[in-house]
Specification:
160 residues; alpha+beta; Immunoglobulin-like; 6-stranded antiparallel β-sheet; 4-stranded antiparallel β-sheet
C-alpha cells in the first residue's frame, strides 16, 4: 500500500482541490454580479413614442428617460412613425433626466432639440400603446463603462 502515498499528502491534495473549487465558484459569482451591475445601468434608459393629440398642434416624438444617474453616449434611436421608418435620432450624450424630442420632418435635422416634457409647447403628451405604426424599433447606446448596448422593438437588451 506504500504506492498510494501517505495521509498528509492526500489531505494536502484534497485541501488544494477544495480551495481551487471555491476560487472558481467565487470568480464565477463575481463575474455574474459584475454583469448584473453593468446591465443595471443600461436598463435605466427607456424610450417610447408619444403624440400631442391636440388637432391644432398635432406633433409626434419620443420621450427619453435616463434614471441611471450617469450619462449615456452615442445614442442612436430608430423610430417608426405613421408606419414608416423616420430618420434616426442621434445624440452624442444623454444626461440623466426625462426629455421630449419632437419629430420635425420638414426641418433639416428632422428632430428638434430635447426639452423637459413638463416645459414644452405641447400640453399633453400621450404614449402610443396600441399601435405598432408608432414605436421605437431600435435603440443603441454606450454606457459610462464604455459598453455598447442594443435594444430592439421589444426592448430586449443585449450587448452590441
Amino acid at each position: 500500500m506504500g504506492f498510494w502515498g501517505d495521509l498528509p499528502t492526500w489531505l494536502t491534495t484534497l485541501a488544494i482541490v477544495v480551495a481551487a473549487s471555491q476560487f472558481l465558484l467565487e470568480r464565477g459569482r463575481r463575474k455574474e454580479e459584475q454583469e448584473r451591475d453593468t446591465r443595471e445601468q443600461a436598463r435605466q434608459l427607456t424610450v417610447w413614442t408619444v403624440t400631442d393629440p391636440d388637432p391644432t398642434s398635432r406633433s409626434y416624438g419620443v420621450i427619453l428617460s435616463n434614471t441611471s444617474g450617469s450619462t449615456f453616449h452615442d445614442v442612436d434611436i430608430q423610430v417608426r412613425l405613421h408606419g414608416k421608418e423616420a430618420s434616426p435620432l442621434t445624440l452624442k450624450i444623454l444626461p440623466p433626466g426625462v426629455f421630449y424630442v419632437e419629430h420635425a420632418p420638414q426641418e433639416s435635422y428632422s428632430w428638434r432639440f430635447p426639452v423637459d416634457p413638463l416645459h414644452c409647447d405641447h400640453h399633453e403628451l400621450r404614449p402610443y400603446m396600441k399601435s405598432d405604426k408608432y414605436q421605437v424599433v431600435g435603440l443603441s447606446f454606450t454606457d459610462n463603462a464604455d459598453v455598447r448596448w442594443h435594444s430592439d422593438d421589444r426592448a430586449r437588451l443585449e450587448r452590441a
